Amino acid sequence: MCGIVGYLGVKESLPIILNGLKRLEYRGYDSAGVAVFNGSNIASCKSKGKISKLEKSLNKRKNLNGNIGIGHTRWATHGAPNNINAHPQFSNSNKICLVHNGIIENYSTIKQKLLKEGFSFKSETDTEVLVNLIEYVKIKENVKLGEAVQMALNQAIGAYAIAAIDSDKPDEIVVAKLGSPLCIGIGNNEYYIGSDVTPFIEFTKDVVYLKDGELAIIRSHKETIFRKISDDSLVSPTINKLEISLDKIEKQGFDHYMLKEIFEQPKAIKDTLRGRLNLSKGLIKLSGMDDFINKFLTTNKITIIACGTSWHSALIAEYMFEKIAKISVEVEYASEFRYRDPIINKNDIIIAISQSGETADTLAAIKLAKSKGAYIYGVCNVVGSSIARESNSGSYTHAGPEIGVASTKAFTTQMIILYLMAVKLSRAKGIISEKIFHKYLIEISSIDKKVLKTLALNNSIKKIAKKFKSSKNCLYLGRGYNFPIALEGALKLKEISYIHAEGYPAAEMKHGPIALIDKDMPTIVIATNKINYDKIVSNIQEIKSRKGKIIAIVSEGDIEVKKIADFVIEVPDSIESITPFITVIPLQLLSYHIAVMLDRDVDQPRNLAKSVTVE
Ligand code: F6R
Question: pTM for this structure?
Answer without folding.
Answer: 0.72
